[in-house]
Amino acid sequence: MFALPFGCEPRTRVHTRLESGGASENGCRRRCLVRRGAAYAPNAAQTSPGLLRCHKRVTKRSGLSRTRAREAVTPPATPTWSVSRADVGESSATPVAELAQVSYYVREHLAVIEDVSLALHRYEIVCLVGQSGCGKSTILRLFAGLVRPTRGTVYFGGKALHRVNPDAAIVFQNFALFPWLTVVENVMLGLGSSIPLAERRRLATEMVDMIGLDGYENAYPRELSGGQRQRVGFARALVTHPTLLLLDEPFSALDVLTAENLRSELLNLWTHGSMPTQSMLMVTHGIEEAVSLADRIVVLGKGPGHVRAEIPVRLRHPRDRKSDAFQELVDRVYKIISDEDVYVTRPMDTTGMPIPRKGNTMLPSGLRAPSMPSIAPRPRVPVSDTVKRSNRVNGGDDDANMHSGRASEATGRLASNQANAHPQRLEPNNERTSEFPALPPVRLGSVAGLLQLLASESSPVVDLYRLGQALQLDVHGLYPIVEAAEILGLLTLSEGDVALTDAGHAFVAGSVDDRKRIVRGALLVAPDARLIQIICRLLRQAKHRRIPESLVLDSVLDRHFEPAASRRQLDTAIEWGRYAELFAYDSVSGELFLEEDNGTPENGQERVRRSETVPRADSSKNSFGSREMNQLSDATDELE
Ligand SMILES: Nc1ncnc2c1ncn2[C@@H]1O[C@H](COP(=O)(O)OP(=O)(O)OP(=O)(O)O)[C@@H](O)[C@H]1O
């Protein structure tokens, strides 16, 4: 199945609101929501992790100063962001969308779902859980108007829906990106052709920025990690400003740390009222995921699909997964799903108390046991220097690793026991031929996920071994992520224990811009980030602020690493440099380049940003004069 967000009309109410003060009902409502922040909402500047970049968006669009723009969208300081948007009492009598006694049959006689009634209210996240084949995705498609009910009615905004829903968008599990289109072009597809091309590009670029992919606008999907691809999926859905966001297992294809990071960023956007969306319906197989995100969990039964229980989740955000209330709810949902004979009547649903008839503890097919990691104490196993060195050059096993795919994740898990039991037996890596510092080849999204996880722990110090167990990562998979965080000064590792530093706490609490600033500052001074520092200096020396990647490979990396390891080092440097917006990369020409200089001195160095005006060298290596190449090549000796 492949579909794009629906609707072609430009829907610009949020931007209108931000620029003009907002006159629309929706804009007003959302503004009120933000203002009520004094009573319930978070202070983005203090507590907002992740993806939120509204202040930057406002700056770009309205010309406000950055500080003023931040004030325009940041609610007043408040103790905590703890109340669900569904709890603000703004849900109106008319649901955002509703299935009223809907049945859906295929081939005229095969019932997929039967007599399902389900209302989605304003500012509510509803999670659909249930065994494989119980009709979860079908319900999503009904709300999207992609399929029509055989009986019953689908309502949207109180009106019967008879066509594809233009105010809904879907985020898919498998990202569904066009590989031949860049990030911005993929997002533009969500907008439809009735909007002028330049406007589509502008809106898409803004959304890419908001979703935390600034610096990747012109990257192709193959250059992105799974988490980044799913960010594009979110951007493509959100760029249409959908009233209803439908999520079909959006985190299930991601490794656990990336999923953790993205999930918390999404929740943060939602909680801050930064999304144009009024209601979210998410299909998930993860019970803990449902309990951590949902305002209401709907459990479906199968044969044919029907609603077995609706369980309101009244826990406050951020939800403590170790709390008794959280775990009780997980157990309750688990019991309802796993025991077909637990019969739940509708009046009982609101209390969330099922009536067990007889025991059945088997995990149904397609249902994952509670999967979000929690960490317990354990005996200590230090990580050997050999493992550290080996992992720096070779990377770990998870999707976190930039050079391994899903298959290697599974392999890594299988290998985990041996590796954890005998880390000191791992063979030293022989690729490196000198003491040039190697970057651990991991994605920074995984680092963010790890930090997020550590911050949610009650203990300030967490045991690395237990952490690996909880994440189902062996030492090869986990250590490079920890090491990357260590290089960036975000955590400390001592005798097998990891602890967040002040910078690590600031990173977790910070916005996307804050996070990038922290990483940028660290990369410019960290001794182990010498490769990135050399690239930055070469770029500043280059005539057009562009260098071919071959220069870095030939003149720097190949002196110190075997060719395959050189490539991995360069890919890592590109990923980190892009994230920090230190430089950009053109994968077609294989060139690194500086973006427009915004003149902001940082750590004694000048930060540079994108510019269409930077002259672009020809994609062939020859466009760099041999004299310049020689000069730059000579310069590397000095830089090293
Ligand atoms: N167009 C169709 N033709 C034939 N069978 C269909 C069609 N649509 C849905 N089904 C069947 O209906 C059942 C429910 O499908 P659906 O994808 O909605 O379930 P699901 O709960 O989302 O499953 P999963 O959790 O495995 O993704 C499945 O058995 C599916 O094969």
TrEMBL record:
Residues 97-327 form the ABC transporter domain. Pfam families: AAA_assoc_C, ABC_tran. Residues 424-433, 604-619 have a biased composition (Basic and acidic residues). PROSITE patterns: ABC_TRANSPORTER_1 (PS00211), ABC_TRANSPORTER_2 (PS50893). Gene3D superfamilies: P-loop containing nucleotide triphosphate hydrolases. The keyword S-adenosyl-L-methionine does not apply. It comes from the Eukaryota. The keyword Transmembrane helix does not apply. Residues 369-433, 594-640 are annotated as: Disordered. Keywords: ATP-binding, Nucleotide-binding, Transport. GO terms for molecular function: ATP binding; ATP hydrolysis activity. PANTHER family: ALIPHATIC SULFONATES IMPORT ATP-BINDING PROTEIN SSUB (PTHR42788:SF13), TAURINE IMPORT ATP-BINDING PROTEIN-RELATED (PTHR42788). This is Probable ATP-dependent transporter ycf16. It comes from Cyanidiococcus yangmingshanensis.
